[in-house]
User: Which sequence fits this backbone?
């Protein structure tokens, strides 16, 4: 049995006290849903018991983002704090309910902003409406740290000079002889270390990466970059004093045309494919095709469920009105099968769907 719990959370302030209260209520709902599946009481305790301590963990609830996702089965317990305010939902069934996570699993609607300067490095994980700064343990925090200026054997020296504008001291550096190419080489080495540190974080990602920084840094970072989804355009200017929200907003201006074009191209492909029988919005047809890996592109409506059961062997489809018993969200099932078989999923609002139905697909064959 699989339990999926989604809930919005508060990041800070007195409102964080509501987080554990809401979580306790959702655990009770999960208990009731498991009872409805005729699961034995000891099996229910085995599933929900490890979640109970989180309800009393004050520190855990003080370090949340905008939403919490909990995935639990007998051999798995995973909790995800994400910058997305989920609608409250508890699902008990034969599969994890992953549809609310699809923008993160597929890269659709999610992007990163890498804010660079000689003095700081920040990486923001963003959606159109949310942003959170990521921990960068494996990345140098500055040019000085990358090149170990505190090492007397280093060829690059730090100097402190007085700016022409007054008494404020400006940090400056030079290489042997103050050569311009040496400074560029040092920045390139700095950025290569950053790129290497980001590799483990982003190696399985498809989300766009937007670089933010003063204009002369952009071509140097592009030379060091190995991430395949670095955007052509970036955010120019000194970003050290920009907030997370300001960087997210500027980053969205860069990636919005990318997302819109990819989705528009996919919808155009769907419309062309309908006439040749290579596309459909029929639920039963899509479920069968997804099971056998035939779905190339799937559109699924966020915030909507179609409960029921489906047996691909007998091709028997049974729809229900409620999330009860062994029912599963069939839209979620089609999306999971599509992702597992290498297809692309667009989890979108109803007004962005290519048809009025909650599921549409383009087939590989």
Assistant:
């Amino acid at each position: 049995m699989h339990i999926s719990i989604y809930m919005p959370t508060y990041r800070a302030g007195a409102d964080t006290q509501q987080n554990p209260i809401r979580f306790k209520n959702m655990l009770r709902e999960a208990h009731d849903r498991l009872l409805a599946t005729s699961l034995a009481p000891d099996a229910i305790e085995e599933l929900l018991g490890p979640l109970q301590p989180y309800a009393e963990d004050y520190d855990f609830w003080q370090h949340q983002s905008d939403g919490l996702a909990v995935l639990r089965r007998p051999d798995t317990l995973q909790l995800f704090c994400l910058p997305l305010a989920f609608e409250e939902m508890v699902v008990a069934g034969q599969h994890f309910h992953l549809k609310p996570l699809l923008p993160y699993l597929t890269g659709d609607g999610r992007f990163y902003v890498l804010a660079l300067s000689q003095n700081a490095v920040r990486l923001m994980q963003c959606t159109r409406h949310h942003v959170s700064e990521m921990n960068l343990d494996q990345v140098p925090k500055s040019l000085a740290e990358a090149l170990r200026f505190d090492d007397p054997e280093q060829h690059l020296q730090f100097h402190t000079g007085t700016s022409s504008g007054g008494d404020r001291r400006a940090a400056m550096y030079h290489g042997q002889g103050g050569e311009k190419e040496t400074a560029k080489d040092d920045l390139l080495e700095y950025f290569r270390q950053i790129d290497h540190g980001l590799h483990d974080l982003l190696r399985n990602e498809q989300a766009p990466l937007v670089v933010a920084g003063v204009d002369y840094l952009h071509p140097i970072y592009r030379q060091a970059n190995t991430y395949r989804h670095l955007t052509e355009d970036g955010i120019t200017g000194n970003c050290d004093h920009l907030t997370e929200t300001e960087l997210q907003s500027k980053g969205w201006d860069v990636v919005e045309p990318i997302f819109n074009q990819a989705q528009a191209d996919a919808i155009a492909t769907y419309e062309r494919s309908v006439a040749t029988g290579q596309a459909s919005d029929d639920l039963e047809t899509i479920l069968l095709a997804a099971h056998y890996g035939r779905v190339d592109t799937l559109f699924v409506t966020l915030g909507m469920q179609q409960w029921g059961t489906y047996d691909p062997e007998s091709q028997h489809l049974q729809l229900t009105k409620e999330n009860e018993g062994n029912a599963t969200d069939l839209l979620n099932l089609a999306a999971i099968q599509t992702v597992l078989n290498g297809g692309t999923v667009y989890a979108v609002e109803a007004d962005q769907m290519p048809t009025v139905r909650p599921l549409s697909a383009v087939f590989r064959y």
Remarks:
- The longest strand covers residues 2-8.
- The chain is about 35% helix and 25% strand.
- Residues 2-97 form one domain.
- Residues 193 and 199 are 10 Å apart (CA to CA).
